[in-house]
């Protein structure tokens, strides 16, 4: 991790404030202050910055939003057509999540959208880890939806085509 002098100064000031607010942890904050003041870059990771070094690209964020929006459209269809058992019982009719091993950043963002931002809560997603890679499946489904030129609610035929993509 690289920290500029300005970054180190900001963090130093934060740790000095924390040291005053939490005198019981003064020794821990003194160590962190010395790391920052002396520029011991080897120990920057021990500063408990709790920041992910990997950013999720805007493109991938939009992908997850689009996937959840697609499942929202399918959900609305099933709400409007509760007797359509073929769609309701289709194994792809509900969001399956992302693979926790290989798509963990996408899975984490989906969790953030639902549990932190309270978006898509009505989808009643209980499992975010699909235990298998889903990116290419969702990409095919989104591509199929795009070719259908749907702007509003989906018809039964459109839902079926998307589910079979």
What's the short version?
The protein is mostly helical and 165 residues long. Helix content is 55%, strand content 0%. It has helices at 5-21, 26-38, 58-80, 85-88, 104-116, 135-147, 156-163.
Characterization of this structure:
This protein is an all-alpha fold. The protein is built from 7 helices and no strands. The chain has helices spanning 5-21, 26-38, 58-80, 85-88, 104-116, 135-147, 156-163. The longest helix is centred in the middle third of the chain and has 23 residues, at 58-80. The radius of gyration is 23 Å and the shape is elongated.
Q: What is the secondary structure topology, with strand pairs?
A:
Layout: H1 5-21, H2 26-38, H3 58-80, H4 85-88, H5 104-116, H6 135-147, H7 156-163
Q: Would you list the SSEs in sequence order as H and E? A: HHHHHHH
Number of strands: 0
- How would you state the average pLDDT, rounded? 92
Biggest sheet descriptor? none
Helix fraction, binned, reads: 55-70%
Question: What kind of oligomer do you see?
Answer: single chain
Question: What class do helices, strands and sheet pairing give?
Answer: mainly alpha
Q: Which of globular, elongated, flat, extended, rod-shaped describes the shape?
A: elongated
Integer-rounded radius of gyration? 23 Å
Given the structure, what is the number of helices?
7
Q: How far apart are the first and last residues' alpha carbons, in Å?
A: 42 Å
- Which band does the percent of strand residues land in? under 5%
Uncertain ranges: none
């Amino acid at each position: 991790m690289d920290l500029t002098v300005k970054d180190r100064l900001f963090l130093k000031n934060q740790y000095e404030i924390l040291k005053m607010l939490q005198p019981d942890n003064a020794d821990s904050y003194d160590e962190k202050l010395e790391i920052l003041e002396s520029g011991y870059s080897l120990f920057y990771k021990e500063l408990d910055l709790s920041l992910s070094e990997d950013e999720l690209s805007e493109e991938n964020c939009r992908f997850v939003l689009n996937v959840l929006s697609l499942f929202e459209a399918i959900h609305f269809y099933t709400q409007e057509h509760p007797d359509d058992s073929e769609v309701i019982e289709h194994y792809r009719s509900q969001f399956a999540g992302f693979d926790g091993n290989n798509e963990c950043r996408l899975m984490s963002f989906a969790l953030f959208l639902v549990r932190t931002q309270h978006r898509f809560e009505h989808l009643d997603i209980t499992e975010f880890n699909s235990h298998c890679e889903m990116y290419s499946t969702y990409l095919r489904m989104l591509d199929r939806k795009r070719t259908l030129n749907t702007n509003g609610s989906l018809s039964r035929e459109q839902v079926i085509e998307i589910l079979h993509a």
